[in-house]
Design brief:
By secondary structure, this protein is α/β, with parallel strands linked by helices. Helices cover 41% and strands 14% of the residues. Strand 1 and strand 2 (109-114) form a beta hairpin. It is elongated, with a radius of gyration of 24 Å. The structure holds zinc ion (ZN) (2 copies). Residues 146, 186, 400-401 line the site of one zinc ion.
């Protein structure tokens, strides 16, 4: 019970829910079973995968050094100047000249490797292009609490390992591999902007990991709609002439109340959160202007749109009730949309991780009420893609965006994930490049789950 004589400090959240969720996760692991893996005779030849593992082992010190370097120089979105320079220098050391500052973003880099025409002739039809995306932005205050340093090492390490194979084994890359770094995942939807500007032109599939406290094939990633709402009131002396005012703070309060009540009618994994960014100036003037910053998150494209519309209705209702004016401001680019993981590509990922001694959980084992959002969703609704989670800590209770996660991402557990993820992304690329049947299955799965979505025009429809 709370000490009513000392209410100065907040109460400590109980761990009961987390403990219950952990127990249920264990139960579901038994019920759902392990995820499907690509059979041994599919994808890239076994000999080539062995050579890939050797290439990753050879590169291991540089992959881990990259992870540590970025970890030790945390930079927030669009400020990743050290990170982009570090990746560029590493690529150049391996004879690859990247383009830095692509698509109008100073800290976005692009490089590619492809087979020579003679190599493709030997291997039949060119396979197409697979892109490996890399993030390296950090969080203000806590550094790499989202583990993007490990993810960057995964992607760049995979790209370097594939480049090494291309040099030592003719025919190893019967297609094209693109490395594309993507700034500002945390504070922007940069992958949307990059996609609109052409990042995915000519790209047939895109892959990237995310750091986490578990190895997981697919976890729910919610779509997001950001709304800034401005209420315009009429100021008046709050004591002598309140009847001559229209209270913008009343409107904001009613909007927050409506949002709070709306939560009851939402799916349990969906989220609705808001803060007041302008609440008026002084209590003795009826507030003339208030502003709310609202985030609507939902698991599905269609439910995201529906909840966002209902929030707009709540906001309009608040304006009606208070006689205030209201403006709803949205961003120029589409916000994050839900991630659609590609089933056949995930089977390749699972095989690669088992080869590394990891055991990814199948979709549906972890509770999806712990979902977050990512701009990889905007990629995955345009081309087939995967965004599997890789374990960077031995403590299953460590959450993203915490100091404990920052620590893990720079520790030995993070280093192991850097190497296993580098192998995994490279193995997926190799499987896709070498197996026309897998490529067809990837495409068929993508079409069966909705095909190409007009993400850029999503909110205009
Ligand atoms: Zn994050
Ligand atoms: Zn992240």
């Amino acid at each position: 019970m709370r000490d009513l004589n000392d209410l100065t400090r907040p109460t400590v959240p109980s761990s009961a829910i987390q403990e219950r969720m952990a127990a249920e996760t264990e139960e579901r692991r038994g019920v759902v079973g392990p995820p499907a893996a690509l059979p041994d005779d599919a994808g890239a030849p076994a000999g080539l995968r062995t050579a890939l593992a050797e290439a990753v082992a050879e590169l291991a010190p540089q992959i881990v050094e990259l992870s540590h370097d970025i970890h030790d120089h945390p930079e927030t979105g669009f400020e990743e100047h050290h990170a982009v320079a570090t990746v560029a220098a590493l690529l150049r050391r391996h004879g690859i000249e990247p383009e830095v500052g692509v698509y109008g973003m100073d800290t976005a880099l692009r490089a590619e490797i492809s087979a020579t025409p003679a190599q493709i002739d030997g291997a039949g039809e060119p396979a197409g292009t697979i892109a490996i995306l890399a993030e390296y932005d950090a969080l203000p205050g806590i550094g790499h609490g989202c583990g993007h340093n490990v993810m960057c090492a995964n992607s760049v390490g995979a790209f370097l390992a594939l480049s090494a194979l291309a040099h030592t084994r003719p025919g190893a890359l019967p297609g094209r591999v693109v490395l594309q770094t993507t700034p500002a995942e945390e504070n922007s939807t940069a992958k949307e902007i990059l996609s609109v500007r052409g990042m995915l032109d000519g790209v047939d599939a895109a892959i990237q990991t995310h750091s986490y406290a578990h190895d997981v094939t697919h976890q729910t990633w919610l779509g997001v709609r950001r709304l800034d709402v401005v209420f315009h009131g009429v100021p008046a002396h709050a004591a002598s002439q309140p009847f001559m005012g229209r209270n913008a703070l009343d409107a904001a309060t009613l909007a927050l109340t409506g949002i709070g009540l709306l939560r009851q009618q939402m799916l349990p994994m969906d989220r609705l959160h808001a803060i007041i960014t302008d609440g008026g100036q002084v209590p003795n003037i009826i507030p003339e202007r208030t502003e709310l910053s609202i985030m609507v998150r939902s698991k599905y494209l269609e439910t995201l749109k529906e909840i966002a519309e209902r929030v707009e209705e709540v906001v309009h209702g608040a304006a009606l009730m208070t006689g205030t004016g209201v403006e709803i401001l949205t961003s120029e680019y589409c916000n994050e949309v839900p991630v659609r993981d590609n089933g056949p590509l995930l089977t390749s990922w699972v095989r690669s991780q088992r080869e590394r001694g990891r055991d990814p959980l199948a979709a549906g084992v972890l509770p999806e009420t712990i979902a977050a959002g990512t701009d990889f969703g905007n990629v995955s609704q345009r081309v087939p893609g995967i965004h599997p989670l890789i374990k960077v800590t031995d403590r299953p209770d460590v959450a993203l965006h915490t100091r404990a996660m920052t620590e893990a991402a720079g520790a030995a557990t993070g280093d192991a994930a850097a190497l296993d993820g580098a192998y995994g992304l490279a193995a997926v690329a190799l499987d896709w490049l070498h197996d026309a049947g897998l490529r067809r299955a990837v495409r068929a799965d993508f079409e069966a789950t909705g095909g190409v979505i007009d993400v850029a025009g999503f909110w205009e429809e």
